[in-house]
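Explain this protein:
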Amino acid sequence: MIMIIGGQFQGKTEYAKTVFGFRDEEILDGEKCDINAVFSAKCVNNFHKLIERILEKNEDPVRFCERLCGENNRAVIIMNEVGCGIIPLRKNDRILRENVGKSGCMIAKNSEKVIRIFCGIPEKIKGDLP
C-alpha cells in the first residue's frame, strides 16, 4: 500500500498519475464511488471524504481501514491532511477530523511508502520515493 497525503490542491492526484501512470478511470473518488469498490481499486482519491461517508452510515472507519489494509494492500490511497489548523467548533466536524486522523494512521502504518505532497513537491515520510 502507498499513501499520498497533503493539503487541499497541493498536487497529490497529479503526482499519482505521473509517478504511477494512473489514468483518470483507474482512480476512484472517495466522495462518490461505491464504498465497497475500494477493496479492489488501484487508487482511491479523496479518501478523507470516503471516511466521512462511512461515518454517515454509522459504521466504524477504523475497522473499515483494517479490512481495506487486509484485502487491498496494493492500493494507492490519496487523502487530505485535515488535522492541522483550528479545531472545529461543531462536534460532528471534530468527530470527522478524529476519525480521518485515526484512519490515516492505520493506512500509514500498513503502507510501505507514505509520501507528503506540498506545493507539488513530494516529501518522503516512510519508505523511498518512487
Q: What stands out?
A: Helices lie at 12-20, 47-56, 61-71, 91-110. Residues 2-126 form a domain with the Rossmann fold fold (CATH 3.40.50.300). The radius of gyration is 14 Å.
